[in-house]
Amino acid sequence: MSVGEVTNADAALPPLRVGLLGLGTVGGGVVNVLTRNAEDIARRSGRRIDVVHASARNLGAPRICPLNGILLTTNPMDVVENPNVDVIIEVMGGMTPASMLIRRALELGKPVITANKALIAHEGNELFALAQAKGTVVAFEAAVAGGIPIIKAIREGLAGNRIEWLAGIINGTGNFILTAMRDEGRSFNDVLAEAQKLGYAEADPTFDVEGIDAAHKLSILAAIAFGMPLKFDSVYTEGISALKTEDVRYARELGYQIKHLGFARRHENGVEMRVHPTLIPERRLLANVDGVKNAVLVWGDAVGPTLYYGAGAGADPTASAVVADLVDVARTLTADPNHRVPHLAVVPDQVSDLPILSMDDIQTGYYLRLTVLDQPGVLANIARTLADFGINIEAMIQKEASDETLHLPIVLLTHPMREAIMNDAIESLQALDEVCAPIVRLRVESLVS
Amino acid sequence: MSVGEVTNADAALPPLRVGLLGLGTVGGGVVNVLTRNAEDIARRSGRRIDVVHASARNLGAPRICPLNGILLTTNPMDVVENPNVDVIIEVMGGMTPASMLIRRALELGKPVITANKALIAHEGNELFALAQAKGTVVAFEAAVAGGIPIIKAIREGLAGNRIEWLAGIINGTGNFILTAMRDEGRSFNDVLAEAQKLGYAEADPTFDVEGIDAAHKLSILAAIAFGMPLKFDSVYTEGISALKTEDVRYARELGYQIKHLGFARRHENGVEMRVHPTLIPERRLLANVDGVKNAVLVWGDAVGPTLYYGAGAGADPTASAVVADLVDVARTLTADPNHRVPHLAVVPDQVSDLPILSMDDIQTGYYLRLTVLDQPGVLANIARTLADFGINIEAMIQKEASDETLHLPIVLLTHPMREAIMNDAIESLQALDEVCAPIVRLRVESLVS
């Protein structure tokens, strides 16, 4: 069956009905992701997931998402109390009225999904107790490190480990600023102004640049890593606003990068939690996490170091985490517990027997090494042959002949090309008189991160 | 309540009883991790997890783990059919008799946890159908990328995304060989022999160096990323045994690293799956995954690129993944579905109110920048002051005076020291006559990866 087909899996059960508190950047992202990936999400959840009711402060404001079929209100409590809403997503941010709305939803036994790190850091202990008492749940994957599934990794993926420590770059704004200070030698204030213009930093940047946002997130990570209550007030917090460009420069001279790190470690006699600018040896993975990206390094006694990297903020990445929580909730409410997560990620009757492409049809860049006779015109012949097949050369190394045979290696990188064409081109190259050994062919992937 | 205390949470329910097929490296690791972390695992699962019955080919062979209280047999079917065994862990490897044993366990409705990538790649489709029909599950986190929770990340953490492609270094042996070929300029055969001596490669290395092991894993990753059946036979597979040291060197000259990559991408008209040596630009994260480590880069349409990094093999890392699956199973069998994963990772009455250390008690390295008068003896005074506090200097930069005031910066890195002592030392340094501006202090973490 093809991916798009509607089948009994999503037809059999009524859709899960979502109430959305907040239609700003993250709320808009959630609607977009749920709309765009509706079919894949239904295949994974075993039912459709529809946003049916949403609140916004200003109904006339411009939106980044379609609102078809969504009932709108300026009163978020209407959404919470709507008996036709099964699950609440809170993406308004701030403490008030988010706290009161979430409490009411939990009282009603409705699962709540939130991206609100400040609220979880400050009130998580009570919210979790309330959810537990009411037989429901508060999900908060989106509260830490945006789209990186770090909560799930720690609470579930590393559940066999004693977690010894974790260290994270968990504020994208701060990392953007530090990266620009390093790469462009600019001052903190100068880069902050740019970050504000680009929308990476708020008009009031205090939470980001004074480390408060990172401390919120660190208190959440430490709590789940060590199985202890949230203790935001105990996090030692130092921001990056006092950091000088010259210290960034001196650190580099010493072989270090300065990153704004959240760090938590378990000791015999207690736990340390701290957020501050930190020098990290330049070869470490965390030292190479740049710009607005986030990453968390977790040390478990069995697994050793593991690292989780990705986008720490933004509409779609945060929505990715919100929707992951939503699929978790939908699976819990839909599948029998033993089959909550389908073996192949989608419910069995939705597995798609996708065709597999032949290697002839893949497209990639190529590295070619030719061993040729050291004589005039050889390079021209090679280049012309490749050009005949429409293959562009991106880089080349020509070496001196390595022995008395006057054989010399020519190494080429090509732009991406279909493999079938490259195979023909290699055959033609191999047939050239000057080519005197089998051509070595490797593939090149530029990747993105 | 303290971490170690026995409380009603693990006392209330009888332990989950595990049957273990295979007591080699991975089996021994599983017993070790379950033994060492028994309390943490019980806090997370809501009940104890005990290995009660295990099979091994040779009962007299030396073991890496304690066997106290475990009933031993040479007949694995005894373990499968033991009515006092609730869950089966299969870590024997190979197709026969693992396949038959797993099928029997599923027939009996027992959840099966396996690290057997070859078996999942070849027979997963039937095993999953059988598990589904019998109301139980086959869990296989350990089958791909060792301790990295990549199956969970893709099936659950990225469930909101349309996954476009993924690329992974998913064979530790191959990556160890490539790293040594690059760093030491040695030939494939030379490094392979060393890897075999170190236990990183098997006596018959075919599965690792010809890419078959990576193809097994790629077929699993692609199936769950795209929601399609396992199609191992359709993976284009090329190993690293033909790779020449000179190509590794030329790739570097061009700004690339050669990695043995598994790559899967979804297209309009089908899916590509291929495993082969691949040139990757040297700045990419995957290009910097060295030695026996694994990493998988996954591109989701909402989240963008995310990366998962860690140990891809070894007794304890593989056990980490097996036990994560076991905790998943235990939570499913123990908690009500809405509270399968506790908010704070451990069941509510097991949350430990751990003390938080004062910053005075933390220990870290320090970066100090002092602005001093350019006069004789200043450096000696600084060094003597630090020595008085027992603080060792690891590195130093002294710059020329930057203006007419004859003030010059001295930058120091220290070995780790308690913060309280460092605070006192900074106070003493600040009091030196030659120090003419507030001392800048940053912290240093060496991390490990």
TrEMBL record, chains A, B:
UniProt-listed Enzyme Commission number(s): 1.1.1.3
Positions of the ACT domain: 367-443
Residues reported in the UniProt entry to bind L-homoserine: E202
Catalytic reaction equation(s): L-homoserine + NAD(+) = L-aspartate 4-semialdehyde + NADH + H(+)
Alphabetized UniProt keyword annotations: Amino-acid biosynthesis, Methionine biosynthesis, NADP, Oxidoreductase, Threonine biosynthesis
Molecular-function GO term, any one: NADP binding
Pathway(s) it belongs to: Amino-acid biosynthesis; L-threonine biosynthesis; L-threonine from L-aspartate: step 3/5; Amino-acid biosynthesis; L-methionine biosynthesis via de novo pathway; L-homoserine from L-aspartate: step 3/3
Entry keyword annotation includes Oxidoreductase: yes
Family matches, as PANTHER family: HOMOSERINE DEHYDROGENASE
Stated family: Belongs to the homoserine dehydrogenase family.
Protein name per its UniProtKB record: Homoserine dehydrogenase
